[in-house]
Amino acid sequence: MKSLPKSSVIPKDFHNQRRLVEGSTNLGMRSTREGRRDARHTSFAATRFGGAHRYPPDTVTTLQGSSNPVIPPKGTPERKAQLDQLADRAKFIRLETVRLSKIAGAGHYTSSFSAAELFAALYYSVLNYKPAEPRWVDRDRFVLSKGHAAIGLYPVLADVGFFAPSELDTYTRLGSPFGDHPDMKKIPGIDFSSGSLGHGLSIAVGIALGGRVGDRPYRTFCMLGDGELHEGQVWEAANAAGHYRLGRLVAIVDRNKLCIDGFTDDVMSVEPIEDRFNAFGWQTHRVDGHDFDALLDVFDALPNVQDGPPQLIVADTVKGRGVRLMEYNPDWHVGNLVGADYDNVIAELQAGLRPLEAVND
């Protein structure tokens, strides 16, 4: 009897070794945009359920993105309901990350896991957008500068209705629009084709400047990995944003303390992050990136003015959050779960997050 291959971490030159075709040809595999819109109200989680690795239907709560989202006041029943829904969506993001990685044969689990609460808070409580109108001129823009975490963003875009959930079953396959990194020309809801690290904040500055010139009300959000702070281009963009007083620009640093080369501060120290951005004229905030209540408070308090200091949120997170063997483990930047390891990780995620104080105890 043939034994199952062992779960593995992927070497750092993984992208040079693996040749995934990320939708360079169409091959007729994509549905039409009209078809996507017709399917937008289908719950991604419910549609994809069908086995131990699927999201359980009894816990599905479909939340549709809409214009003018509202964050309920803290301590109210409405706030409690929203927190419960967001926790459900963060679990969904982690489970779908594992499932899509299985389709591809490898995946960026840990970078998606650290950002799961951030993705959920943004798309279900903060961002102003209309899935039926992906190019709506006044939509809030979201630039995922850490593009390798797109595997966690795609399920959210499907869940809120930007495209048919079934399209994700082609993830990284020949002709699929869904590759390791997002393509704005092929995927509704993607505002920037990211992947080369360190570029996102510059793009976000340009988008925010465009909003000011056009007198548009949208805000521009940009999520960076903390390893991107090693890039000089990030600091040029930070300087420009402060100089032009881009008050509707919000940068979010996923401070998970790891990058592909190891622990971020061992490669090059990035602290004190707030002081460095303050020096460029930013207003800064620091928050537990896995605490929805705290995240909603920070997002709700952000000023929304064209002429003012740009806003920085440093979100302290745990890379690999939710799976004990991956948490703070530099070997799992890219990896592949198979056999019993895959089933065990699904079971651990289904059980919900352990308290943070229990991480790596």
List the helices and strands and how they pair.
Blueprint lengths: L7 E2 L4 H4 L15 H6 L5 H5 L28 H28 L4 H6 L1 H11 L14 E4 L5 H11 L39 H14 L6 E6 L6 H12 L5 E7 L2 E2 L2 E2 H4 L5 H7 L3 E6 L3 H10 L9 E6 L18 E2 L2 H12 L11
Parallel strand pairs: 2-3, 3-4, 4-8, 7-8
Antiparallel strand pairs: 1-9, 5-6
What does this structure look like?
The chain has 13 helices and nine strands. The protein is of the alpha/beta class. The longest helix is centred in the first third of the chain and has 28 residues, at 77-104.
Give a quick rundown of the structure.
This protein has 361 residues and is an alpha/beta fold. Helix content is 36%, strand content 10%. The protein is globular.
Structural class: alpha/beta
Question: How far apart lie the N and C ends?
Answer: 38 Å
How does the major sheet shape up? Answer: 5 strands, parallel
- Estimate percent helicity: 25-40%
What order do the strands of the largest sheet run in, or round the barrel if closed?
2-3-4-8-7
Structure keywords:
9 strands; alpha/beta; two-stranded antiparallel sheet; globular
